[in-house]
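Input:
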Amino acid sequence: MKVNLNHQLNDPQTKGVEILSIGTELLLGNIVNSNAQWISEELSALGVNHFRQSTIGDNYTRISKLIKEISLRSNLLITTGGLGPTPDDLTTEAIAKSFNTALFERKYLWAEIKKKVSVSSSTLGTSSLKKQCFFPKEAQIINNPRGTAPGMIWEPKKGFTILTFPGVPSEMKAMWKETAVDYIKKNFSDGYIFFSNTLKFAGIGESAVSEKIDNLLKLKNPTVAPYANLGEVKLRITARAKNEFEAKNLIKPVKDKLKKEFSKYIFGEDDDDLSSVLIKELRKRKESFGFAESCTGGLLSSTITKVSGSSQVFKGSIISYSNELKQSLLNIPEHLIQKYGAVSEEIAQNMAINAKEKLNVDWSIAISGIAGPNGGTKEKPVGLVYISIAGPNDHITNLKKIFGSTRNRVEIQRLSVNVCLNSLRLILLSNSK
Amino acid sequence: MKVNLNHQLNDPQTKGVEILSIGTELLLGNIVNSNAQWISEELSALGVNHFRQSTIGDNYTRISKLIKEISLRSNLLITTGGLGPTPDDLTTEAIAKSFNTALFERKYLWAEIKKKVSVSSSTLGTSSLKKQCFFPKEAQIINNPRGTAPGMIWEPKKGFTILTFPGVPSEMKAMWKETAVDYIKKNFSDGYIFFSNTLKFAGIGESAVSEKIDNLLKLKNPTVAPYANLGEVKLRITARAKNEFEAKNLIKPVKDKLKKEFSKYIFGEDDDDLSSVLIKELRKRKESFGFAESCTGGLLSSTITKVSGSSQVFKGSIISYSNELKQSLLNIPEHLIQKYGAVSEEIAQNMAINAKEKLNVDWSIAISGIAGPNGGTKEKPVGLVYISIAGPNDHITNLKKIFGSTRNRVEIQRLSVNVCLNSLRLILLSNSK
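Output:
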């Protein structure tokens, strides 16, 4: 079976791929459907047309009816959920019922499952687990390297195939990568792939980016699509081509144009984030850094230490949340705090200079502000943040930001962290070593 | 129209409510469908039966066909997305097409929209915005207090009503609360509500909780459902009743049983988290705290400072990520680090004792471990974490945790933070003031 799913994108008569998420917890709103998003992204990358998604509860008749319905309009159905051992797990049975097919035990699977659960076997009813060994006769098994519930690839009728996965994201993803990717490539791709390259921006808003590239946003191949999320703007360039090489060739001129237009606003690509880019740059320069945090209360440090390898350049921080600790740990004189207030350019600058010395680092960032929701005044409103960066040769950069009182506490903290990281990145750029 | 949606929950012939999410970005996997989750949760709380969700791209014919299909099997359809001014926004037109209905301009809406965009009107084509004023004649408008795109409540045929909302979550939620909640209560509820109360657990796994309450998990009203997420276990007790008072009466005996069974493992309810509970307890005791963090690199501090009001009890931290700073900021003798290694009970305990003094706090928590993925050895594997808590009257508690090498860096950091917070909570419980 080799079906062309990529043609006539806008013809509703074209068959395609559907995703069906099974689980009452989704209908109750207990969890967000991250599986559907993840699979959608994978399908885009594989270049197969995916037209529709459905979500249904753990109800035998409803599942069975819906699968029958999907089999009339699609070539390929990917299901997640309902493969486990409990009475609520009904997916395989319901699928079989849709096509009046019986289920048969696969003895080797039972042996495998028993091995997998050997440790805690006493607490598991063998009868319920055994359910996971039953499949239609012609179904091909998708091995589950991370759990006990296998999935299947089954073509119950000509031109319609079902792939089943468990609802646990880590199991689903491992099985997808091990089995589904190659299967879909081989059977459902028309030879074209979609390939994306994402440019990441900092220090510029989505509308400012979009306005400048009106013409690029209208391109058909590659397409250029903007995304924005709390201080971070991304442009995803997606090409449809015979292979990655051709796709990259389509993407390159657009990317070059964007890099020329936005130069230093672009901090990285794809999986880069501000912290990883900054750590990389400091490693290259063989320089270290550390922080004196007040209103961000550790978020700046933890954003850096999330990155593996950060210990090569990050030495540590002083979280001086109280004025008392600004004095005792950072040697900020009490009279200065009384004169200017803890949230001021003067205090931030003193924090940066003293932190640089106390932490014995090449670069220090200090931050003092009002994250709210309380503590704001008319002169110093919620969202007011002072940032100071101290570096080699008495370098000092002072910044004042007003994030606006419509932002909540955590947003103000996160935006402050972004500004800190991006500011140091820009300083390093203009102080090349 | 007053339709009972709550009866015969498992009869697939029962009509109910459906959610339709419209947007090609969902099919491409660019964003996760958080709107569907939010609305599902709202529908649960309203006690209406919600059987199915669909997602479709920005394609006129496909949307129109799908809406026709849904109108044959449901009483109420809630759509999100596709109400904006761009050519991709097709929801209202496609719905009208499903029922061969024309759209008419509402002049007062155009006046309102013009007022809303006055600031940036120059950059917006008026013709595209005008689209947002066109609705079927009989449709009732849902005012959008946060944006320009209104929604509608429309009953295109007897027994089938459509509610439309924009895809922007903040707009959708504001409109839902202002208009939809009352409308659904009045027209689609059978007078019963669902009311939930969630108990939160720490220091115990999901399976250990589930095993002990096998009988409670089988209850029908209220139902008891377990959820687990990286070191946190929740039990949601949901009652169906005439009103909140009755629901609470149904929930109370189950809750009492659980509190008796699990006592100190239950740290809070509903919106509580470990940090807010701990801050509340310290405020009550008029005690302060601070940290000496190594492997968590600021995450423990930032977990506390996310909570508004934390400054009343949290004074600050020393993030001694390097051994050098463990010596200079926390006075840990170099020979001790050489003798035991930075990741050891001895160093963690010294960090806690010295941090208590340096930060001048009543309670200090120190943490030193190997978050990975590198830096592990056979004796000290990735996931090994030492925690020490120092308190009044020379109180010292030392803990050793091995989180296992299958956990990634951020998971090990987050689990460590949970253990720190829960351990101090338990210490406070047994050291009542």
